[in-house]
Amino acid sequence: MNPTVPMPVNALEALGHWAPIVWLKTNPYAYPSLEILHIIGIALVFGTLWIIDMRILGLMRSFDVNQLARHIIPWTIAGFLLVALSGFTMFVSRAGDLINNPAFVVKMCLVFAAGTNAAVLHARGAIVATMVMTKAQAILSILIWVAVIACGRWIAYV
């Protein structure tokens, strides 16, 4: 044990001393590359949800909303997995800072709210785009994801 390196106090701090995370912190290209992957994932999530939400709100009426969702949701899930994996890796490298960052905390709460909104929508079965509740959820989805993106940008500034 190296006496100049302090012992980790908790599990998150211990993860920060794990060799891949140390490499992430010290390699000048690693973290920016993760950020790029994170942004690509966000583009996939928001872009695909935007299409479905716009269809629910009355655009692209020539497409059946449920058939459209069946084709697009797998891309949404792939984007979310990319966001979650890259985001968790970035989080572990700066856990102490991020846990105390109000923009990060709000972003995580909003991601939970977006997931809950989607779960409620899909738990009802087939999407009925003519229902007022479905339209309200589409609007809410757009607003939540715009707020998630905004909070993500604010993390660096608060």
Structural commentary:
With 158 residues, the protein is mainly alpha-helical. The protein has seven helices and no strands. It has helices at residues 11-16, 19-26, 30-56, 65-93, 95-99, 102-123, 132-154. The longest helix has 29 residues, at 65-93. It is elongated and about 65 Å long. It starts with 10 loop residues before the first helix and ends with a helix.
Question: What is the mean pLDDT?
Answer: 91
Indicate the multimeric state.
single chain
Structural class: mainly alpha
Task: Catalogue the unreliable spans.
Answer: none
Q: How far apart are the first and last residues' alpha carbons, in Å?
A: 36 Å
Number of strands: 0
Describe the main β-sheet briefly: none
Helix residue percentage? over 70%
- Measured by DSSP, the beta-strand proportion falls in under 5%
